[in-house]
Design goal:
Length: 205
């Protein structure tokens, strides 16, 4: 099974990644979607987890979506990490138009890319995510901008599924998503009260 790293040296194998879609108003607008009446969930399996940013070469286009991501223990947040939810946007749009599930566009191999995770016992309301692609700031968002806050998402999720200890929650992406290509360089940051908590780089291969 694929794994993530906690606090530099602890290897954890999440059974799944629980994701929420449409959780930032400006991102909803940029994709011309409607604000949903209830939370939109989807799942990425363990096989989607990666520490490398790999372009799905069987497709011509893929989008990045940077997200504040949390490690879950006993249904509570125990650590934070930087995550990329890779999305085959054209395929997703085609599936949505046909009223079909999104898995082929969201749950493919290496579609959930993570930094290391860092244990956290601070007030998560002060967390922020930033993504630079080829040194250009593309995405920036924080907890206050979310429609549904992380603890609300967890409460709703456990009403119909179980988090295994070590599972990951991805909390949605702010505006600025877009296409990327081979050899692009990504710099992802998680900040706490404007101080860098996590800084990670990826080279698209």
């Amino acid at each position: 099974m694929n794994s993530i790293i906690l606090d530099d040296n602890i290897k954890i194998q999440p059974s799944k990644v629980v994701c929420i879609g449409r959780n930032y108003v400006e991102h909803i607008k940029e994709l011309n979607n409607e604000v949903p009446e209830s939370m939109v969930f989807f799942i990425k399996p363990n096989s989607s987890i990666s520490s490398d940013l790999v372009f799905p070469k069987e497709y011509d286009s893929c989008h990045y979506e940077a997200e504040i991501s949390f490690l879950i223990e006993e249904n509570k947040i125990s650590a934070v990490g930087f995550g990329l939810d890779l999305t085959l946007r054209q395929l997703q749009s085609k599936l949505k138009k046909s009223g079909l599930p999104w898995e082929r566009a969201k749950a493919f191999r290496n579609s959930a890319v993570f930094s290391k995770f860092v244990s956290i016992n601070k007030d998560i309301e002060h967390l922020e995510v930033q993504l630079f692609v080829n040194d250009e700031l593309k995405q920036k968002g924080n907890i206050s901008m979310m429609i549904h806050k992380p603890n609300e998402i967890i409460k709703e999720a456990i009403s119909f599924l179980d988090f295994e200890d070590g599972d990951i929650l991805m909390t949605g992406t702010p505006k600025g998503v877009g296409e990327f290509k081979l050899n692009d360089t990504f710099l992802g940051k998680i900040l706490y009260k404007d101080e860098i908590l996590i800084e990670t780089t990826f080279k698209v291969s």
